[in-house]
């Protein structure tokens, strides 16, 4: 019995750590701000994984006045996602003739904070197929929850 005690303790701690990890849920819903200062607000995810939202970019590749733009997205609902789901969404810019698709994953970081790690493709409109080669920009964005008053 004396020898079994440390083993039981290790097992208990391991199970405790595992159940703590299992409770780390990342939710897409609500307000986010990214490393460029762009802001978005996401609706609750529906039973099929669909969601909508609004996006206010802080920057633009055009000379147009920036306006809030709609987005539509889809979240992966497979149970293997373990509370940190993958997702994608498309922003249909209301002030330019471009489209951006984002893909990413909702993580809970080491400080217990939710974070969206994304990559994006920004497709611009070209008047000629000859210019297709220069039509797509690519990049990364990291979204976090806004601080109060942000
Ligand atoms: C445009 O310039 O035609 C539309 C705005 C594009 C903004 C891009 S999308 C990727 C990157 N992340 C942002 O938050 N804004 C820029």
Key descriptive features of the protein:
150 residues, 1 helix, mainly beta, 8 strands, binds biotin
Notes on the structure:
Helix content is 13%, strand content 39%. The chain is mainly beta and 150 residues long. The N and C termini lie far apart (57 Å). The chain has one helix spanning 4-22, and strands at residues 30-34, 39-42, 50-56, 69-75, 86-92, 99-108, 114-123, 136-144. A hairpin with a 7-residue loop joins β2 and β3. It has an 8-stranded antiparallel β-barrel with strand order 1-2-3-4-5-6-7-8. The protein is globular, with a radius of gyration of 20 Å. It has 1 helix and 8 strands. The chain binds biotin (BTN).
Can you list the strand order of the major beta sheet?
1-2-3-4-5-6-7-8
Mean pLDDT: 90
User: What's the quaternary structure here?
Assistant: single chain
Helix/strand order, N-terminal first: HEEEEEEEE
Question: Count the helices. How many?
Answer: 1
Low-confidence stretches: 7-13
Ligand set: biotin
Task: Please describe the topology of this protein.
Layout lengths: L3 H19 L7 E5 L4 E4 L7 E7 L12 E7 L10 E7 L6 E10 L5 E10 L12 E9 L6
Antiparallel strand pairs: 1-2, 1-8, 2-3, 3-4, 4-5, 5-6, 6-7, 7-8
The structure holds biotin.
The site of biotin (BTN) has 16 residues, from strand 7 and strand 8.
In short:
The chain is mainly β. The chain has one helix at 4-22; strands at residues 30-34, 39-42, 50-56, 69-75, 86-92, 99-108, 114-123, 136-144.
């Amino acid at each position: 019995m004396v020898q079994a005690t440390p083993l039981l303790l290790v097992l208990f701690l391991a199970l405790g750590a595992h159940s703590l990890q299992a409770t780390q849920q990342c939710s897409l819903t609500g307000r986010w701000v990214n490393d460029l200062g762009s802001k978005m607000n996401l609706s609750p995810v529906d039973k099929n994984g669909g969601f909508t939202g609004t996006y206010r970019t802080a920057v633009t590749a055009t000379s147009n006045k920036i306006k809030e733009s709609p987005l539509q997205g889809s979240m992966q609902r497979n149970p293997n996602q373990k509370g940190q789901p993958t997702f994608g969404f498309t922003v249909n810019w209301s002030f330019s003739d471009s489209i951006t698709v984002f893909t990413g994953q909702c993580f809970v970081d080491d400080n217990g904070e939710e974070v969206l790690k994304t990559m994006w493709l920004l497709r611009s409109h070209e008047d000629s197929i000859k210019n297709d080669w220069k039509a797509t920009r690519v990049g990364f964005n990291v979204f976090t929850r806004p601080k109060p008053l942000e």
